[in-house]
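Lab notebook, entry 606. We have the chain sequence and a SMILES string for pyridoxal-5'-phosphate, and the next step in the workflow is to get a structural model of the bound complex before anyone spends time on docking refinements. Request logged below.

Task: model protein plus pyridoxal-5'-phosphate, output structure tokens.
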Amino acid sequence: MSGLEDLYREIILDHYRNPRNRGELDTPPAKRIEAFNPLCGDEVVVYLNVEDDKIADIKIAGQGCSISQSSASLMSQAVKGKDISAARELIRSFKAMMSIHESKLESTSSEELDEDQQVEDVVVNPEAMGELAALQGVVKFPVRIKCATLSWNALAQGLDEIEEEANSSK
Amino acid sequence: MTSKTKLDSIDSTLQKEPLDVSEIRKDFPLFESREGAISESTHPPITYLDSAASSQQPRQVLSAMESYYETTHANVHRGVYAMAEESTRRFEEARSKVGRFINAPLPEVETVFTKNATESINLVAQTWGRRNLKPGDVVLLTIMEHHANMVPWLMLAAEIGFELRYLEITDDGELVIDDLEKKLEGVRLVGITLMSNVLGTINDISSIASMAHRNGAVVLADGAQYVPGMPTDVQALNCDFLAFSGHKMLGPTGIGVLWARKSLLEEMPPFLGGGEMIDDVRLDGFMPTAVPWKFEAGTPPIAEAIGLGAAIDYLEKIGMDKVREHELKLVSYAMNSLKERFGDDLTIHGPADPSRRGGVLSIAYKGIHPHDLAQVLDEYGVCIRAGHHCAKPLMRRLGVPATARASVYIYNDHHDIDVLSEALAKAGSLFGDAIT
Ligand SMILES: Cc1ncc(COP(=O)(O)O)c(C=O)c1O
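Result returned:
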């Protein structure tokens, strides 16, 4: 039973039952990113408002299992109000925490592989992860890693797109 | 896990069971002991409730394949030596067993071996479909089809430009056929699953088929779920094509079947090209050989066909009437006992009347996501399937992203259902009244 308790920690169940930052933002100005796990139909929608290189607001919509939804909720809490660079740092750390099996699960293109390589180099400091460390137990259940990383991939994609747009309008 | 008193009371109902499950389980290496064969010794005994995805194999099937490899392996149809002849004989014997099992009028001629039900349906789409369907024609399917009986038609429709039309379902998971006559206008082929792999619904296609035939359409039956658990008679079903897979009916993976009327098979062009399927090849053309071999290019899955033949021997020894009776009893028991225990917290998708369904139960419980449910159940050794079951359009119709599906077969009994029930209760208390 220990594995299950590791997976479904109280924090995770709490965020599943009472998701934080749930809702939508007006687009534009907000950016809307949708991520999908075709395996189980999990769906996470991230709404992002970036002002002055800061994540001014973030909202989460969508539906899915306890892992995908609690991870999104925890993520929204962790990055709200943060600088983009700090948010990116957190994405890297989180993906490193989850990377133990993920690279094996994904049929990655060489481009993505390089990113994974970078991820491996990040040293995860559990202290710095705060409540996010509760999701650590997921790595013991390889099929569920995709659930946990779904919202993080959406966030990363959103930040990329926002920065690209900012650069191209400069 | 289950309280002793409860089990005792169940045992008394076991007296006149159609099948002796404990005897049957002795034939299955996986169940030899209730421990199952999983590697981690800490893992609880296996409660296998995922036969709708793939069944387990009895020793008789495994040893038929092993004996073939150990004593007579040689390629079929080409050898002159005695061993190659024996190999061919066993392969063709398996074919006629399969044909007789579904009461084919011409078992040796009308039974085509494929890789699985999916390939069988693709074969029909790519040969019969490609030859006969034109822009403006209609293919009529149902929204409860497995992707295997949807995507091949979507692919072909994108190329040829015919219309796809669908039969809807009622809230009880039954096909809506009130407006069938109208739906059949312009239809050249009707593709219907004989049993839904999600809802369990058994579709009575013989009357649909009569009407389709009157309208000049042919009928393809997807028997992937039906054939393993029901006495199957293609003549009574009144279909023109029947597709099914060996691995869901005690056979190995890698072998599937397409049955079709001889007249249809003969007018269909070949499927894959290569050896085995030709009579003559010249630099500027070829002559396909006779059916069924015309559709079996290349070296076939010989051992797998022999394994499927052994699976059919096994099922026939039990009797398909008994198999059906057993599944019906078990599904009734499961529906009653789960409803009684969980009340409105639990919903079972599909027909409420167990006699309208096969051995699958898609469960929604307390809003717990199917993935979470399956994860907790695994902790108790209960193997169920969570996901969209390759039926995304149906999931949309049901308004759910996924379901948790338990399915039973000849080696399952009341005890398995009780373990499922107990594990569901654990999941319920873990997740409490969570949920969006
Ligand atoms: C109703 C139905 N049709 C077709 C299939 C496809 O079977 P296979 O994957 O063996 O080709 C399945 C398997 O899940 C099924 O349940």
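Notes for the group: The longest helix of chain B spans residues 320-342. Worth checking against the assay data. Chain B touches chain A at residues 369-372, 375-376, 379, 386-388, 392, 395, 401-402, 430-432, 434-436 (CB under 8 Å).
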